[in-house]
Amino acid sequence: MTTTDQLYQLYLQHPSINTDTRKIAPGSLFFALKGEKFDANTFAAQALEAGAAYVIIDNAEYRVNEQCLLVDDVLTALQDLARHHRCQLKIPVIGLTGTNGKTTTKELINAVLSQHFKTLATQGNLNNHIGVPLTILSIDASHQMAVIEMGANHQKEIEFLCSISQPTHGLITNVGKAHLEGFGGVEGVKIAKGELYDWLAPQSPPNGGGAFDSRAGVAFINNNSADLMAMQARRKFAIPPVFYGDAIDDLVSGEITTNDPLLTLRWTNNSSGESYTVKTQLTGAYNLNNILAAICIGVYFKLPAAEINKGIETYQPKNNRSQIVHTATNTLICDYYNANPSSMAVAIENIGKLQANRKVLILGDMFELGDEAAAEHTAIIEKALQTEVDERIFIGKEFSIQNSKFKIQNASFYSSADKAIAALKANPIKNSTILVKGSRGMALERLVELF
Question: Chain-wide mean pLDDT for the chain?
Fold first, then answer.
């Protein structure tokens, strides 16, 4: 069997990692991962033909030559290799998790730090047990900082991802109602996300060697979040946390001065007492804390205010997260990458506050809510009805069930996106500001071309 040390020596010679034969880079290491519907061991020969230097497999049947390296389990080998590589790195690694805003906050932090440091950040949302190791293995000697996003839908996942990424600094954006089925309710979410704080404030040193055994790290904490403040108060941080929010005692404080729909902020470095204005390309008052988190980290690492502002100003949201799209007749707030009760509620609140001639809500079902699905969809319907907008459209089976149960008025309900599309084609929306939000599985991007 090939050991982690042996794999690492090969990785140093071939630092490009692949897990998809369609994207093989010549001279790379191909890890033959298994999925529910595939076994990449079967592609070992194909990976070598495509130019892979070595293929890591866990089924000896597919060992076609000495370039096929056998391990007990390919996924574990990948994770162990990443953990070993992380132990060789001496750079700050910022670990990031939370219910909402992880990817936007990660991108903002990266945009700020990249003004001053060569920074590597998680690509897209590769934030799971495969994505985090791949991100760690993409850090090379030229990088001065890393920002690692970590996602989870069960207990102990953040703890495990921390054991690989070994963050020296950390941030929980917030805790809310998401993946309730897997976490077992909101209290379960707090426990799971709090595993990042546990890593930064360990009760006792972890087993084994390595440069980061003490694990004492810096937590950046939103002082405006009662949940996060309570969570950090239950832990003993060897290094005092760094706070951001709206108080003068925070390292950074700030407020929105314009939301029309793009945000302008005024923020203050409370160490120097100096204040600054920054215009963003983000919409949504809920992004204030995400922006302040990035500013706070920039101030902590002593970036000049001009560099911090440039990072914030030049960041353009994408992937349908708080993204503004102007069409011939409408302004769209595209926020349909994902949805849960917490993010849905603040998005509805935000459009209610916007100045616009005509406002429309288009909301799709929220997934992975388990036994709470009916109650949470009902609560969102009620919130939408209480918000001053001109039209409300609900799409999906869960929303439609609530309509038939309560016979809700002043709103349109469609059991599927296809039915909504047919209705919108017959009665197009024009001259409106439209929030489009729902879980990724609803595929609400199909509606955008109608506007």
Answer: 91
